[in-house]
Please model this.
Amino acid sequence: MITKAIRLYGVNDLRLDEFELPKIKDDEILAKVISDSICMSSHKLACQGVKHKRVRFDLSKNQPIVGHEFCGIIEEVGSKYTNQFKKDDKFVIQPALNYPDANGHSTLWAPGYSYEFIGGYATYIIIPKEVMEMNCLLNYNAGNFFLGSLAEPVSCVIGAFHAQYHTKAGSYVHSMGITEGGAMALLAGVGPMGLGAIDYAIHNPRKPSLLVVTDIDDNRLSRAAQLLTVEEAERNGVELFYVNTKQKNDVTEYLKTLNKGKLYDDVFVFAPVRPVLELGNRLLGRDGCLNFFAGPADPAFCAELNFYNVHYESHHIVGTSGGNTDDMIESLNMMEKRELNPAFMITHIGGLDSAAKTTIELDKIPGGKKLIYTHKKMELTAIDDFEAKGKTDPFFASLAEICARNHGLWNTEAENYLLENACEI
Model:
C-alpha cells in the first residue's frame, strides 16, 4: 500500500513523502485516515525536533509520521484481531498509550510522535500492536469524521477535570475531580481547548456553580459568548461570566467580586504565560487546585508560587498532558449523545498539502482548531473566508452556504461535500 504522509526530519523540517507501507503483521491493522485535527503539541514537536521527549528515533535514519488527533476507516485486520475489529469500521485512537518497556515502566511512545507508520498526517497507516494491547483503538459510531478527530482534544479537557483533587481538613484522602457546586476560573480560556472546557464545565454532570472565563481579546470573548451562552449555562445551573482582564486595574480583586468576595476552588490556566499562571495562583482559595493545562515549549519555563499558601491554605497544582482511554470513551459517549458539540473548536479547513506549513506556523495563525482532510489537496482556509473565496470559486461558495445554514460551524454536510468535491492529494 502506497501512503502519503508528513514526517519529521528535524527542527521545523516536516516533509510530505510518498512511500510504500510494509505488509501488515498478524498483530497489526491497516487503516485509512480521513481527518486529523492539528494540535499545538504537534507544533511543539516541530519546534523541538529530536529533543522532544516522545521522539525515539535517530531522525537521520527513521522519521515518524506527525499528527495524533485522527479518525478513519479500517482497511485490513491482522489475524490476531479479526474477532475485535473488521474492515470498514470507523475508528479513533487514544495516542497516550503508556506502553510499558522491558522493565515494566511506562514509555512516552505515541502515534504522531514515535512511530514510522502511524500518525494523523497520512493517507494510510499501520496501527501497531501496542495500540491494541493498550485498548487504545476505539470504535467510532458517528456519521462523520471531524468529530472523531476532536475526541482526543476533548478527552484532554475531560482528563484535566478528572485530575483535579481536593481534601477535607484533617484528612489525607484526595477527592478526585473539581469541586461540585464550587467556583471555577478558566484563564486565557477562549482558545479551542478553553472552549471545550467551558462546554464540558456546563454540560458535565459534575459542574461548578460559578464559572468565570477570562481573556484579553474582545473578539475571542465575543465569539465564545455567542457559542456558549450565559443563558445556556444558566439552564444547566451554572452562573457564567466572560471577562476581558486587560481592561481591569486589579484583576484578582475584580474576579473575587464575581465570587462574592471569595477566592476560587478550581483554576485552569490555558496559556503558558507567566503572569497568567501567577494570577491563577493568587486566585486560589483554601484547598484550591490550580491546573496548568497549557504545556510550555520552553523546558525552563518557571513562575512564582506562594509557598506560604501551599503550607497554610493547602494550595496544590496539577498538570495533565492528554487524557486516558476512559476520558476518550467519555468524550465519544457525550458527543454521540449530543451532550457536547466541539464543532465550534474548528475554524480552518485544509488538505494534507497544507498540514506541514500550518503545523510549523500554528502559533501565528489566529482562530481555533485547524482540521486537515488527508486525502485532499486544499490550501488552509478559514471558515469565515469561504464566502469571499466563493465569489470566484463555486467549491467555496457551496461550503460557505452549507456552513451559513449551520450557524457558521463546520458540520457533517460540509464534510460530505468536501470529501466528494475537493481535489485529491
About this structure: The radius of gyration is 22 Å. The chain has a mean pLDDT of 96. Residues 21 and 370 are 27 Å apart (CA to CA).
